[in-house]
Amino acid sequence: MYRVFEALDELVTIVEEARGVPMTSSCVVPRGDVLELLDDVRDALPGEVDDAQDVLDKRDEIVSKAREEAEQTLASANAEAERLVADARAEAEEILAQARDDADRTIAEGEVEYRNLTERARAESDRMVQAGRDAYDRAVEEGRHEQARLVAQTEVVQAAHGEAARIVDEAHAEADRQRVECDAYVDGKLAEFSELLAATLRTVDSGRNQLRGVPYPNARSAGYDYQVH
To answer: Containing domain of residue 99, as a range?
Structure first.
């Protein structure tokens, strides 16, 4: 085909440069050169036409091959999308399972901590109650000794009774105060445990949200859009 164009360009040049015939639009061209170029064009055209016909003959084969490649590409894209969906689902299930394990472990640890706190609080309460009773017993015993020693002195005896009652009241008040402090300590630990459980539940909810919807960019880059509902 290149020779055909080249010969035509030479013919155009010959005509453009040909000497004109006076008083007419005709020109004088070298017959031999023109005929030679026309022969070149005639010789070159059959081969080019045959090549073009071969292309036309192979058109159906080319189209069929292109369609087959397109179908293979589509099948590959679908397989890749399914693999991505399966991977995303497996990852979401793993995240959810891990969140559940963390929640179970946190709850178990919280229960153990609660039991430990309760036992320590009960032991501390018992200790403080016993200390109050011991102080009460000591105060009563001291009051009795003081009463026996001062039995003849009414005012002294009355003062001893008052002091003994005051000591007993202070012992009870101290026991009550320590019990209130212990209850406040236990309540604070339970509040921390409640916040820990709330954070764990938020982690579980986040895992569930990841499981509900996952975009697949590789599928989109192949020309398809897939979503999981």
So the answer is: 77-221
